[in-house]
Amino acid sequence: MTREEIEVRRKDPRNYNWRLIYFCKEDPRVIVPRRIKWMGWTLNFARPSAVPTLLLVLVFLIVPLRMVEGQGVVTVRLTAAAEILVLCLLCAYLSSRTE
Fold this sequence. Notes:
- The structure is a single chain.
- This protein has one domain.
- The protein is built from three helices and four strands, in the order H-E-E-E-E-H-H.
- It has helices at 3-11, 50-67, 73-96; strands at residues 16-17, 21-22, 31-33, 41-43.
């Protein structure tokens, strides 16, 4: 499947349930850009690995913040900023792959 075919499917409103949840069996990606790209990413819930990916993202966000809890405001904010940066870079990379 070419990148153009994937983009057509991503933009098709019929692949969204309740205009929010992306569900497209033909799209091979788990992490997909939202219809309005600057709004971030969403998961393709037609993929079996979508729920484990969601759980891993939540663990990635919660565990480091719990580890630095009580270490000071600056440490917590730097940790949160680093988590968000790494998560955004990872989502951008995974959503650009078409394998």
